[in-house]
Design brief:
The complex is a heterotrimer of chains A (435), B (320) and C (157). Chain A is 79% helix and 0% strand. Chain A is mainly α and 435 residues long. Chain A has one domain (62-278, 308-431). Chain B is built from twelve helices and eleven strands. Chain B has a six-stranded mixed beta sheet. A five-stranded mixed beta sheet of chain B has the order 2-1-3-10-4, with helices on both faces. Chain B is globular and about 60 Å long. In chain C, helix 1 packs antiparallel against helix 2 (42-65) and helix 2 (42-65) runs parallel beside helix 5. Chain C has five helices and no strands. Chain C is elongated and about 65 Å long. Chain C has one domain (2-156). The chains are: A mainly alpha (435), B alpha/beta (320), C mainly alpha (157). Chains A and C meet through helix 1, helix 2, helix 3, helix 4 and helix 13 of A and helix 1, helix 2, helix 3 and helix 5 of C. Bound molecules: sodium ion (2 copies). One sodium ion is lined by residues 335, 375-376, 378, 381-382 of chain A.
Chain lengths: 435, 320, 157
């Protein structure tokens, strides 16, 4: 245990100090891990092994799905997809009081089911929905809060790069099963936001949208169908076992490319820029994965999870309390750290502990991703929080108060997801992806 | 059941810890044999050494573990034979289809210093040493649709194989289409019809519950790939002569122990598989053997390989 | 310094775009070969994996040039301008040290050690495949130097 304690102290102190003073997250994690590694296996050995772990950590066919899903998302976002999805969301949310706010939530869920990026969703949907809602008399702070509060649902609804990262960090949990397990919790997230809107709309007598005729609805649906077909083909194919997640992601690229080219929303000459945009997003995640593998190795070698288990959870054998503490820690960490690095750091620590209590890896993965997705909107910082207030033209402080009810309901759904495993496992079980 | 978290118990001790990277779970006979060897080695060296085995690829996959041993970051690893080909070509001879007649023949060759001494020491430049070899089971084809008896029965079937050119050629000669795929995806791929089956020993076939989806297990006996125990030269050189001798002795005992354990494990695996619906059938091996013979000729390019292959064949006489 | 940066940007972005486009075609071809031609390929999956790591490493270097990697900024912003300048410089220094010591020096030793090991399905040296680590490390070192130079110039004006 001495070795574990020494390694753990070096690891966490160096990483925390570097993070706080604004060193890039990947470099902070890498630097802390290498110093810990050198202290246990020696200088040259530590350097060579670090270089090897970085490289082999990224050298996985599964991870290839990430650049492809990102690329498909960038292609789709370039092609006026947001507007089509918003129109469809309008039809779905109908004539409830506060219907435009509901539309925003549904649009974020639809957007999330095609692209994996909550930030892109909050930007694209917020940009279009904000002015519309303002025209109908919604308060800008409220619309921004709705947009911010519901955008992360798309990180849990598949395809989800965060779930792919968890699959890797947990030692190869089935991506097909994780994807399909994400639907119900992701939809619950959206429904919880809609419930908040529902209560507020009745109290504040928010406007309803005008009636959409059946013919109009038909046209709107027809326009949205090509985008939605992507979900059916790609997720259907992955879950149905027709192809692997990586192959599905490549098909998503080809499909979205052909679709956008045929609709002339992008041209071939735009491709270099699109590829470079997708490269940027991808490599940030991948470099982090690489350096995190150095850290995971240090943790496995010295068995840090056991040390933490005994010090953090030593006072209890009660899995309910253990899961509560884990959620608390993750909510706290997620406030400051993005989901990807947080998953990479905490899965190797928490997963062995949860596993020893018989928790299912799919259930645990959805819980951890759900939790850390909340972090993207928890004040004082978070990418979705930032982008959502920026597109609304508001200061961060102005959206915090109206955001609170949404924050509270998502935490309540998190508790449901944590303690009712059936919410996560029932759909994969029905489809035979889980036994 | 142990309640300790994390998969490895690292002892608090003044002993030199020998760290071993292992790719299979703790229930594997190789793990059991190595663990008991660790206990005996600890006793016989009066607690000078303690062996800690990291199972289930905790420290990394096998190819990466070789490099960790070379660097000296860890001390030992168990490595499948096909990976050793990447260092020295001649290791390929022991991975050829039908090169061994039986487990006994294989273990006889792998422990015969007249045959293997040069081969085992050939990787010493790379900072590692082959300490011995475990029996890695006999690989047979299994599929979803019916018993395989001749190469024609495999026609048009996509069979999951381990990624290597030799394996692709071999499966093609055997009649099927070899499809390399990560083991984690194989179950769903067979279930959905992307694959028609796989090829593996009874232990893994049963452990991965492939009997549920591909119940026809046919004894093609096409491969018998050894698993090598490698150690870093640092580890061996740092031991006193006395400890080194005990160590090598204990490695031999561990190998014998593993070979003994293997048969009863296979019997258990067969029982489990049968309960899950598996049907085992014998095969016209001569037909398969003939079919794959061009692959063998292709692989025996150097005089060293040919010599090694001939040595293996002459050692086979008592087992035919 | 500016010309070095422009040159590096051009070089790395072009490399990443070509590699990414190739990767899309390669994996699509692999899916097609498996489903339509019943001719699975072991070569393409290995090649795709290695191209992908190269893309990730060289792309990362490129993004270090743009200072695009995620960082926690909000605490830093609470400090005075002078302290922020020092912290930014320190951050570049840590990045440089990591790239130099781990990726470049550690990477070169790794390449040398694995040069004679061959990849089964690609038939090339594993050391060659690993060489993306020291190479991208070198690019990150150059970018960090350029970033430090830019920082100090901004300070002076
Ligand atoms: Na999504
Ligand atoms: Na946050």
């Amino acid at each position: 245990m001495e070795l574990a304690l020494q390694a753990a102290l070096i690891l966490f102190i160096v990483i925390a100090v570097l993070l706080v003073i604004g060193v890039p997250i990947s470099i902070s994690v890498g630097f802390g891990s290498v110093i810990a590694l050198i202290s246990i296996i020696g200088f040259n050995e530590g350097l060579i092994l670090s270089a090897q772990r970085m490289f082999t950590g990224m050298n996985s066919f599964t991870l290839l799905a990430i650049p492809f899903f990102v690329l498909a998302g960038v292609i789709m976002n370039n092609g006026g997809m947001a507007l089509r999805l918003i129109n469809l969301a309008k039809v779905i949310s109908g004539r409830m009081p506060g219907s435009l706010a509901h539309t925003n939530v549904v649009a974020n869920m639809l957007f999330g089911s095609i692209s994996g990026s909550a930030v892109a969703s909050a930007a694209a949907v917020g940009q279009t929905m904000g002015p519309l809602q303002e025209k109908e008399g919604y308060k800008r702070e409220f619309s921004a809060a709705v947009n911010i509060g519901s955008a992360p649902a798309g990180m849990i609804i598949p395809p989800s790069n965060t779930l792919i990262v968890y699959s890797l960090a947990s030692g190869g949990t089935s991506i097909a099963a994780l994807f399909i397990a994400g639907y119900l919790p992701g939809i619950l997230w959206g429904l919880a936001c809609m419930a908040v809107i529902f209560f507020m709309a009745r109290r504040k007598q928010m406007p309803r949208s005008e009636r959409v005729t059946l013919k109009q609805a038909g046209i709107i649906l027809a326009k949205a169908i090509p985008s939605l077909l992507l979900i059916v083909i790609v997720i259907g194919g992955i879950v149905g076992g027709v192809f692997t997640a990586t192959e599905g992601s490549a098909i998503a690229v080809i499909y979205s490319l052909l679709l956008s080219l045929s609709m002339r929303t992008i041209q071939f000459k735009h491709m270099p820029d699109i590829l470079l945009t997708a490269t940027r997003t991808t490599v940030i995640v991948l470099f982090l994965i690489g350096v995190s593998m150095v850290m995971s190795w240090v943790m496995a070698f010295t068995n840090i999870p056991a040390l933490l288990a005994s010090s953090l959870f030593g006072f209890t054998d009660n899995i309910i309390i253990i899961l509560l503490i884990m959620n608390l820690v993750l909510l706290l960490i997620g406030t400051f750290l993005d989901p990807t690095p947080a998953i990479l750091i905490f899965t190797p620590i928490f997963w062995p502990i949860a596993q020893s209590y018989g928790i299912d890896p799919i259930h645990f993965g959805i819980m951890i991703v759900f939790n850390l997705s909340i972090g993207t909107i928890t004040p004082p910082m978070g990418p979705v929080l930032f982008i959502g207030s920026r597109v609304a033209g508001l200061k961060l402080e102005q959206v915090i108060k109206p955001l609170m009810p949404f924050f509270i309901v998502t935490v309540l759904v998190l508790l449901l997801v944590t303690f009712v495993p059936q919410i996560t496992l029932i759909v994969p079980e029905l489809l035979g992806l889980f036994n | 059941e142990e309640s300790s978290v994390g998969q490895v118990d690292i002892p608090e001790t003044d002993a030199t810890i020998i760290r071993v990277s292992f790719n299979q779970p703790e229930s594997n006979p190789q793990f059991i044999a190595l663990e008991e060897m660790g206990k005996r080695f600890n006793e016989r060296t009066d607690g000078a050494y303690e062996i800690v085995i990291y199972p289930s690829e905790l420290l990394g996959a096998q190819r990466e573990s070789i490099e960790m041993v070379q660097v000296g970051a860890i001390d030992m690893a168990v490595i499948v034979g096909s990976l050793m080909e990447n260092f020295v070509d001649e290791f390929a001879v022991f991975n050829l289809p039908y090169v061994f007649y039986s487990k006994e023949h294989q273990m006889d060759v792998l422990q015969n210093q007249d045959i293997v001494a040069d081969l085992y020491s050939s990787v010493e430049d790379g900072g590692m040493k082959v300490l011995g070899a475990f029996h890695g089971g006999v690989r047979n084809v299994y599929n979803t649709s019916g018993p395989i008896e001749t190469p024609a029965d495999l026609n048009g079937m996509k069979i999951r194989i381990i990624d290597s050119d030799t394996n692709i050629q071999m499966m093609q000669r055997m009649g099927g289409a070899g499809t390399p795929m990560g083991q984690g995806e194989v179950y769903t791929a067979i279930q959905s019809g992307v694959l028609d089956g796989g090829e593996n020993n009874e232990l893994i076939y049963s452990n991965l519950s492939h009997a549920e989806i591909a119940p026809y297990y046919s004894y093609t006996r096409h491969l018998m790939v050894p698993d090598y125990i490698i150690g870093s030269t640092n580890l061996i050189n740092s031991m006193s002569d006395e400890h080194q001798a005990i160590f090598m002795e204990e490695i031999q005992l561990a190998i014998d122990h593993q070979v003994d354990l293997f048969d009863s494990e296979v019997e258990q695996a067969i029982d489990t598989a049968v309960a899950a619906g598996a049907r085992f059938n014998e095969v016209d091996i001569d037909a398969f053997q003939e079919a794959v013979s061009p692959v063998i000729e292709n692989m025996l390019k150097t005089p060293e390989s040919q010599k090694l292959y001939e040595d293996v064949q002459s050692a086979a006489l008592p087992y035919r | 310094m500016t010309t070095i940066r422009t040159l590096l940007n051009k070089l790395l972005s072009t490399f990443c775009i070509i590699l990414f486009a190739f990767l899309v075609l390669l994996v699509t071809w692999q899916v097609a070969s498996r489903y339509f031609f019943n001719a699975p390929s072991s070569f393409s999956e290995e090649l795709a994996k290695y191209c992908f790591v190269w893309l990730a490493l060289f792309g990362s270097a490129f993004v270090f040039g743009e200072k695009g990697h995620m960082a926690i900024e909000f605490l830093k912003e609470k400090f005075s301008k002078a302290t922020q300048y020092r912290l930014n410089l320190f951050s570049e220094l840590v990045t440089l040290l990591f790239a130099l010591i781990v990726m470049l020096i550690g990477g070169i030793q790794l390449v040398l050690m694995t040069w004679s090991q061959t990849s089964a399905s690609l038939g090339v040296s594993i050391g060659f495949l690993y060489s993306a680590v020291p190479l991208s490390g070198l690019f990150i070192v150059l970018y960090s130097l350029a970033n430090m130079y830019t920082l100090s110039k901004e300070k002076r004006t």
